[in-house]
Amino acid sequence: MAPHLALAAPDLRLDVNLLDYLILAVYFLTVLGIGFVARRTIKTSLDFFLSGRSLPAWITGLAFLSANLGATEILGMAANGVQYGVATVHYYWIGAVPAMVFLGVVMMPFYYRSKVHSVPDFLRRRFNGQTQLLNAITFAVAQILIAGINLYALALVMGALLGWPLMLSIVVSAAIVLAYVVLGGLSSAIYNEVMQFFVILAGLIPVTVLGLIKVGGFSGLTEKVRQSAIGEGGLHAWAGTASGDNPLGAHWIGIVLGLGFVLSFGYWTTNFAEVQRGLSARNTNAARLTPIVAAYPKIFIPFVTVIPGLVALVLFSDLGKPDGPQYNYAIPLLMGDLLPNGVLGVAVTGLLASFMAGMAANISGFNTVFTYDIWRSHVRKDRPDDYYLRLGRWATVGGVVLGIGTALIAAGFSNIMNYLQTLFSFFNAPLFATFIIGLFWRRMTPWAGFWGLLTGTLAAFASYILYKADVIDFGTELNATFWGAGIAFVVDAVVSVAVTLATTPKPESELRGLVWGLTDTTLADDSVKGDKSWYRSPLVLGAGALILSAAMYIPFI
């Protein structure tokens, strides 16, 4: 291997020139300009937090995807490509698309037509205020921690680009995101996310194409991966999963139930940072289509994240080793090695766009839940709307400041995707159990919602602590999150059933529009012209996404 390819973390400085900086400057000005334009539309707290519920499905769908296409997707999935190989595609084809379709077809109508402003607000109406508060607090903590991941990754690239110290890069990056979210609220975040989606692709596609050319195309990449540390197993998604003998160290049960069901459904169907994009849609059908529109490009994202990870695996043999750079550095290393100036500027801009989109989604979700579900519901009720609008802006500032602190936590992880999946197993897996049981079992009681959620969350923490203490051996940290999520789900479900049998349920009159089979007949049809067409049918488009996702596995079994 050529000496310049054996890079350590301090050698990441990218060879940028004036053209690259100019491209970056134009992007930053555009981002802030969108914030200033969006600010003119902010008249009420509904405008700030939910864009006035006025956006079409293609806008909310791309924003839905872009909000997820942050640091964890770009750096994290490429890092997983280096560490685990092709098995990383499970996060997309079984770990995302089915849950996104389920959200659109089944769950989004309950969210949207009940006119709730958040997932915790739905839990308040379905269960009680205590369940709302518990979920609001855990969600707020999770969003700040995840914002820290995005902020750390953003600062990592800024440091590579400019040679700045990590802390300075974190503060400057945070200030940019803070500016446009405070100015324009969710509308600013969403319109920036749509633009950022295309900028991200413009940055990642050249890395993928030039990387494949350098290693001899797909055939050359395949041969070199066989000779790498992960070997033949790194080229297959399902081979060896019956015994756990695969780079992921996972059994197919953990992949299907832990990742494919509990973790993915828990994240995509209950994570308000994503659901919020659907709630900003103009009507119920547009809200249902939001995650389904996002599912189609999601199917193809592995080609610009996992494949670059495999390329980095064969080009930089010291990745993840004690004397080499972290797995997280795979994409920046490829950019510096492969891209000419100008294209390098576009790629750096695409990376920054992805991290800003992810962090903006975390912060816009945090400010809504803090303002509505913690402060207005449990601290200061019945204040004028202007009061909550101002509070939302201050909550945005507070969220960004806290995110700066949690970015330092993320800096301690060699693979930030492992860290993120651990957080999902803590916060999303038990929430999904509470939500899905409460949605389909009208008998479930208010206190069952609270105690199930609390014990499920504690079980997830206990599982992880026992793994870290070597009391339980799950093989790899990633596999530990699969099983931890499953344990949290089961504990939540068992406790929910037990508490339900010992407590009194809500009357059905209070559950209309909140559980399956109890329709709220007072709600008017909000469909618009064209909603009845097959190409706007959530069922038809959702089925197409599932079939396409399953078909993508065929070459990689």
Automatic annotation (TrEMBL):
One GO cellular component, as annotated: plasma membrane
Key words of the record: Membrane, Transmembrane, Transmembrane helix
Transmembrane segments: 18-38, 58-79, 91-112, 133-155, 161-182, 194-213, 249-268, 289-316, 343-370, 391-413, 419-441, 448-467, 482-502, 539-556
Keyword Membrane recorded: yes
MF terms in GO: D-glucose:sodium symporter activity
Xref: InterPro entries: Na/Glc_symporter_sf, Na/solute_symporter, Na/solute_symporter_CS
Record's keyword annotation contains Zinc: no
Location, primary (coarse class): membrane
Pfam family, one: SSF
Subcellular location: Membrane
Membrane topology recorded in Swiss-Prot or TrEMBL: Multi-pass membrane protein
Family as reported in the entry's similarity comment: Belongs to the sodium:solute symporter (SSF) (TC 2.A.21) family.
UniProt-recorded name of the protein: SSS family solute:Na+ symporter
